[in-house]
Amino acid sequence: MNTTYDIIIIGAGPIGLAAGIEAQKAGQSYLIVEKGCLVNSIYNYPLNMTFFSTSDRLEIGGIPFPSIHAKPTRAEAMEYYRRVADTFELNINLFEQVNHLESADEVYKLSTDKGTYFTRHVVVAVGFYGIPNLLHVPGENLPKVRHYYFDPHYYYRQKVVVVGANNSAADAALETWRKGAEVTMVIRQPELGSIKYWTKPDLENRIKAGEIKAYFNASLTEVREGEVEIQTPEGKVTLKNDFVIAMTGYQPDFSFLEKIGIKLTEDEKRYPQYHPETMETNLPNVYLAGVICGGMDTHVWFIENSREHAVKIIKDIVQEEQTERV
């Protein structure tokens, strides 16, 4: 017999977990389905990444997040969210990809690569870290080009070009340089971008000292084996190169949202349609939660300011059920 859940949550990041906790507290039957590991996006962050927020702003479910640092690390966050999942004994299916969602006799039928489920409500909390913003230059598909940065040791004694001007690019440049890489930054803007206050002066000093080379108002135009080509205000520059770390940001899986029927604005922001008070989309009983709500504005929603999405959603579902009983 097929079980019909009250709620299926797509995504086991912090906000998906928060939605599961709220569903559990409200007595709703639920299932969280995740295509990767628990808090998959955080797992894919750089090995030595430090959050900008303090640990209390990353807490969910009322569980304290202790940290020995002023700002918690990636490793501490993964430990914390594992403990949260275990504390609430959350119902989670990991490494299960959602392929399709369709309406079926007043409920939704959700198909994955491992099974089929039925649910009255759906919460989409898929984040945005899975699809990198591409450079769209010749040679970008070469193995030497990386859109994810993890461990600086890999780049020891290598000639590395880091593309980008914000936190991820700054961390990659500084960490690989400290592990013995020869680092060049390619930055579209005339100056460094939004960088953590304890990192920015360090990078500025490395650039000023000539230890890290930086091209401003510049762009990477071609990648070739053993070298890259950069367009600068003074003209084209060819550099010997072993690796390109393209920290150009990421975007939500808009194709998935469109496939299941969620409407998006037609401009470059691609904002999904939802009600800000309930988080319900144009699809009845289908909700959005977390950073996915910002479309291409991926720096609008974070863990700390989208935790409340879970509360809004479950409140709306419970109120709807109470109304139906009257």
From TrEMBL:
SUPFAM superfamilies recorded: FAD/NAD(P)-binding domain
Keyword vocabulary terms for this entry: Flavoprotein, Oxidoreductase
Organism ancestry: Bacteria, Pseudomonadati, Bacteroidota, Cytophagia, Cytophagales
Protein name: YpdA family putative bacillithiol disulfide reductase
Origin: domain of life: Bacteria
InterPro entries: Bdr, FAD/NAD-bd_sf, Ferredoxin-NADP_redctase_2
PANTHER family on file: THIOREDOXIN REDUCTASE 1-RELATED-RELATED (PTHR48105)
Pfam family, any one: Pyr_redox_3
